[in-house]
Every structure is written in C-alpha cells, then in structure tokens.
Write a structure and sequence with these properties.
By secondary structure, the chain is mostly beta strands. Helix content is about 5%, strand content about 50%. The relative contact order is 0.18.
C-alpha cells in the first residue's frame, strides 16, 4: 500500500521545447586562477544571449532543440575583450536530440577541445548547462525527495543531486549540488597538452557546487539556473615534484528572458 501511494504521488516531468524561439541570458563569472594570457589570478565574465527553439522530431519521435548565439561579451579584469559571437559562429546554431526527461541523446555540435577548462564553457555540452540543466528521472519526482545522475563533460563527468523544494502546476523549484574531478597535463603557459613529454605540470582538480534551478512546466523548459562552484586544484611540477594550489570560484546564472 505504501509503495502504491508513493507511486501515485510521483510527478511526471517532461521537456517539450516550444516551436517559438525562446530567449535566454547567460552570465558566467570567474574569480581566481583562469590560466588566460599568463594571468595567475583574475576576474572574468562571459555574458551571452541565446535563442532556443524546437526542431522537427527525429524518426523515433524524440524531441530536438537548437541553440543559437545572439550576442557575446567577454570581460577580463574590467576590460572588454575583443571576443564576439563571430569568433564562435562556427559552433552555432547547434542541435541536440533529447529524451523527454532531458537526457541528451545526440548532438551535432563539434567536440571542441578548448585549451583551458572553465566551468560552463564546454561547447558540445552547452545545452546541459543551460536550458536542459536538469535530467529528470523517468519514474517522476516527489517534493522533498532527492534524485541523482551523472553527465559526461569535456573535463570529466559531473555528478548531480537534485532535491525538488516545491512543485506547482506552473513551476518546479529545485536545489542542486554537484561534484567533479578531473586530471590534466599542462605546459609552462598553463595550456592543456596530451603528450607527457610536453607537460610541465600535472593538475588534479576537484569541483563542488550548489545552487537552485526552476522548471517552467507550461513551456517544458528550464527557466532559471543559479550555481556557485568552487574548483580546488593541486599542481605538481613533473620534474621537481614541487606542489602548489590553485582556486577558482565560478557563478553561473541562466535566465529565460521574456518567454515567448
């Protein structure tokens, strides 16, 4: 009887993706070691306007959604950098095929190996960080009951735990925690290298994060994401074995602006 009652109380959640283009704003703030232009510690911000819309379903009936980049601004230590949307135009628009619960089944975005790892800048997995930020369980969700899943990213898998705080007919509000661990080899300019003979440092990074996410049940889309993440890295010089530490704080805000 208890199992039956629990099953009845589960709420099914599905992404539907409107055919009308939906505008998003993305704001990523970094404070700490970012490895750009030889800077050891810096503050950087990435501001972007995105447009998401439904595409024709695939032959199996799976939902498809495209993402286009409408505007891009990069700020480093208070100065606007000469990076615009034209510099990444070859990666947009891109299209993903997804399950009703938000699991990305296929992506036509290139698997780009960026020279540095910054949370939120994984081009191929961009949708999973923004409008598909939550992967819901097939059986449904329940207020106050946590669920967990893992997603693959360029640097390494991220493990998520999500707890629905409130569920209404219009909105689902959730708390989220995440963890990620990855290792990489870097040269003297702190750029990633694959061959050990080119490496100066062996870097092991542990990331933890917390935040809140909202899902618009009428639109079938994530409407808000706010995440604070801390990355702590242990750096070992491959020759001298000398160790040092690096820290990076990241804040990510994604907002569905003026839903259409």
């Amino acid at each position: 009887m208890l199992a039956l009652l629990a099953a009845v109380s589960l709420v099914q959640v599905a992404y539907t993706i409107p055919s009308t283009p939906q505008p998003y704003t993305l704001d990523l703030k970094f404070d700490g070691f970012i490895g750009l232009f030889g800077l050891i510690n810096a503050k950087a911000e990435v501001q972007a306007n995105l447009v998401v819309k439904a595409e024709q379903a695939d032959s199996s009936g799976n939902v498809r959604a495209s993402t286009n980049l409408d505007a891009l601004k990069v700020i480093l230590n208070g100065s606007i950098m000469p990076f615009t949307k034209d510099g990444v135009a070859q990666y947009f628009p891109n299209t993903v095929t997804l399950s009703p619960q938000g699991k990305v089944l296929k992506s036509d975005s290139p698997d780009v190996n960026l020279p540095i790892h910054l949370p939120g800048l994984d081009i191929k997995r961009f949708p999973a960080l923004t409008f598909l930020a939550i992967e819901f369980p097939k059986d449904g969700i329940q207020e106050g009951t946590a669920f967990s899943y893992t997603r693959e990213f360029q640097a390494g898998p991220i493990s998520y735990t999500v707890t629905p705080r409130s569920i209404s007919t219009d909105t689902i509000k959730m708390d989220i925690t995440l963890t990620q661990d990855y290792d990489e080899l870097q040269d003297e300019s702190n750029q990633i290298v694959k061959d050990a003979k080119d490496a100066v440092n062996d870097v092991k990074t542990h990331v933890t994060g917390t935040g809140a996410v909202e899902f618009d049940r009428k639109l079938g889309l994530i409407s808000k994401v706010h995440i604070n993440a801390d990355a702590a890295a242990k750096v070992t010089n491959v020759q001298t074995k000398e160790e040092s530490k690096r820290d990076l704080k990241t804040t990510m805000d994604v907002t569905l602006a003026n839903p259409q």
